[in-house]
Each structure stands twice: as structure tokens, then as C-alpha cells.
Predict the structure.
Amino acid sequence: MKVFTALELYCNFRKPRSKKKIYFDVTKFLSWVFILSSILVCASAIVNDFTEFELDEVNCTGTHLDSCAACEAGTYANENLKLCGCCTNGKGKCREVADCTPCDAGYEQPNPSQTVCNPCHKGYSTEGKEKSTQCTPCSAGFYASSEGSADCSPCPEGTASDKEASFVCPACQEGSYTDKTGQTECQLCGPGNFCSVKKCTECKPCPKGTYTNSSGTALCHPCWLASYQPQKGQTTCLECPAGTEARTEGAQNCTGCHPGTFKSKPGFELCEECKPGTNTSSSNSTSCGLCPMGYYQSDSGQPQCNVCPLGTYCNEEGCKLCSGCPEGHEARKYGAKNCTECIPGTFKANKGNSLCKKCKPGWYNTASGQTTCTQCPRYYFCPQTDHKPIPCTVGSYCPPGSTAMEWCSSPFFKVDQNDGCVATVEFIALVASLSVVAVIVATLIVVKIVRSNQSRLLILSPKLEISERQPLTSTSESSAPVYAGL
């Protein structure tokens, strides 16, 4: 800012800048000059005083202070200043008590006439105040971690201290927490909640499939077998409804009973297997049904019943096994509910799962449910196994077990008493005669053959002699003779 002298101000105000006249207030001007002069005088005195007692800190030459006052508790004599350091009658004093320096916040001095202040120990503070004669221990829920703390700090979230003069706040253990600062104790996680680490600021709800029914839980428990929990933050697990189960620990939902198993009512149980003789083919079953007649089931936990095989039957519901039919009875189709009698011409000797057998040829029976067949008697024949024997006619014979009549060719054969055909006398004579004739004929044929051979030999004899005397022959007059052999 530019400073104008009184003359310049006067001249400036006297200059005609416009047609309007400007008047200079001399009274106000003199008042301001007086005020400024007073301020300059005071400032000069302060500067001189500061220069005398503070700027020249170390040199006390010519500045010995004989009359000094002892600094009171909570203050100290700063010997780096002439006001205190140049006192000749002892340390811990200054020219006046007002010249003593107050202890800073975080420092204390319980004794008078001291040259320094002491820092507060850890766990103590001056509560933000200066000129303290004694440090105050931190209240419960607060701490001071370093020496010379002006104030105690509240314990952070996740920590707490129930003692005074704490220099550290212990962390909350697993299963406990604090969600505010300055707490004296950690709060336990409530039922249905947990905290698995130290220094928790909040507890979390137990996840689905878990629970806890106590306070201060670090980890939630998984739902036990056959129970479930579909929601978070729960104190117990639920039982599965009828027809459902939870086959693993920590289940969030129940699943339906598998085919072949059932559960009749709600509860903490797994589904049961259907017993032998019963089954269920659907899921979520609350009961098992009996196998129908003609079906069976010998194993547990099966979704289907098996059809009775051939030769067996089941005449009631809930069969575990199919039974074999008794003697004279059979089951000729799958899934039989009852046995039927062997039809005529068939039989079954023993109880079991075999079928009725047909009577062998020459045997018969004419009633149902037979266990044996009867051999066709002598003088009868049985062409069918389910019909009565038929008597043989005259001129035929039927030994036991005959399926047809045997005939003897008359007049050469006749039936004898042993049910067979024997030759008659006539047939024997005829055979003998024919035999004699056959011998004669054969003899004549042989004689004729012998004579024929002899005749041939006689005719060939002269030629053989000539050939023996002339072994060399000639095929023509001009050709050489050829050996013809003996």
C-alpha cells in the first residue's frame, strides 16, 4: 500500500479534478496520525524488550536477574530464555512467575522449580490440557500407546479394554465383537451368529445348512444327518417331511426318497428300504406296496416286483418267493397265481417248479392231476397217451406198451401164444421147396459155366501150337519179320 505524506494528501485534495469542490477534513487526518504514532511507539518498545530478553538467549552479560520467582508446578523455567536462564539465585526460576513456560499437553510436572516437564507414561494423558501437574490414567475403553500422549484414544472397533491406564486394547477373540469405539468389553455373538477370526467388528449369520444354539460361537455346526436348514442365522436344524430325507451333513434342502425306499412321517430319520415282498417305484414315497399275486420280491429296497417264473406261483400279496407246484400240478405261464392240474396224458411225480411231462409212447392216463402214467396192457394198444387202451383185433398181436396192432401175414404166419408171429407149416414147406429148387438151379448154372470154359480151351489149342513154333511173323511181304511172342 502506498503511504502519502500530509503535504501530498493536501495537494492531491486541492487539485481540481472536477467541477465539484472537495473539502479536506483536517480533524480526522490528525486523529489518524496520532493513532499510527502510538502504534509505532508500542511496537518499538515490544521489539526492544523481545530483543533484550529473547533474541540474545545465551549471553547473560549485563543482564543478571537477581530477583526471580520459582516456577510453580505444571510449569518450568526455560533456561534458553534470558527471563529464566539469567536468574542468579537458582534454577527453576524466572524473572516472574508469568515468565515460566506451561507444560505442553501430554507432559506433567508435579514439582515446583523445575527446568523441564516429564512426558506422560503409556496409558496416561493430560486429557488435552496444558500446565498439568499430573498425568491421568486412561479410562477403561481408552488407551494411549505412546509416551507424551495429550489425549487417550478410544479403543477401535473389534477391540476392548476393561482396565484403566491401558496402552493397548486387546482384540476381541473368535466368537465376540465390538461394533463401536471405546468399548470396555467384547460382546458375544448371539445364537445363530458366528465370528471365526479375532478383532471382529460384527458377527455374521450362520450360513444355510448350519446352526448354533449358543453364544460366542466361532464356527457354526453343520446340520446333522437327516436334518436340514434352508435359512441363514438359525439356532437349530429342521426335520425332513414325510417322503423326504437329507442324506448328507450340512444339507440346505431335503430330497425325495429314492424308488425302493420310503419315509412314513416327518422326523430326523433317513428313508427306509422296502422290505422283501414289497416295493415302491416312485420317489417321495411314504409307504411301500405289497407285491401283487403272481409276483415276488426277495430283496430289500427294490423299486419293482419280479414276475413268478414258469413252474411257480404266488396266490397271495407280498410274496417273498414264488412256490413250486405240488405233485400232479403245474404253472404253465409266467406270473401264475395258482397251479393247474396236469392234463390227461401228462404227469408230474414230485413237487417243484418243473412242468408236467407227457406219458411216453405206449403209456397212458386219462385223468387230470396224475403223478404217473400206466403202461398199455397186453392185447391192447394205446395210440394216444390220454385215451384208454384199445383191444387188438383177431389176427393181430399187441405186447405190453404197444402203440399200434401188429399183424401176421396169413397163410404163411400165425400169432403164437407169446404175442408174436410164427411161420406156418405151409410156409416152411414152401421155403424148403424153394430152397431145393434154388440149389438145383445153381448147380446147373455152375456145370454149364464149366463146360463152356472147356470148349473155349479146345478151340484155342491149335493156334497156340503154331504160335509157339513161329514166334517171328511178318505183317507184309516186303517188311521185316516181327517177333510176336511166345
In short: The chain is about 20% helix and 20% strand. Residues 6-54 form one domain. The radius of gyration is 72 Å.
